[in-house]
Amino acid sequence: FYIIILLCLMIFLFSVVVGAPVRVMGYRGERVDIRCTYESGYESNSKYLCKGECNFGNKVIVVKSGSPAEDQRFSLSDDRTARVFTVTITELRTEDEGQYWCGVESTGTDVYSEILLLVRLGKFGAIRVTGTGGRRRISASYLVFTK
Prior knowledge:
Layout: H1 2-14, E1 15-17, E2 22-27, E3 32-37, E4 47-51, E5 61-64, E6 74-79, E7 84-89, E8 98-104, E9 110-120, E10 123-133, E11 136-146
Parallel strand pairs: 1-9, 2-9
Antiparallel strand pairs: 3-7, 4-5, 4-8, 6-7, 8-9, 10-11
């Protein structure tokens, strides 16, 4: 019984989750910006984005402040005045879709906010074509899929 309580306390001590999940949508082949806010007092702390569960000791960190990402499509910039760090993913892929966590390192307890990234195949748009031939006017609408 005490072991279960100890394990629960350890999990709580090593992570604090702030707020409800934020949904971010991007389109395959394009770029997406993931904005992560943080509280005052954390301006000089390291920030990172990890993918998946992001458990203590089992973090898949895709990008971290002060370090180049292993996958060069990921970059992180930190606006300390606005207390927002932004992770940019370029050339978005369908396999990029999933659960991510914005993380701010803190002594003993990292602070997390959950991100759900949705990747769509492309954008739809309508094109209307009109032409005149003799006395007749022809008009047609097309649904166009890009990327």
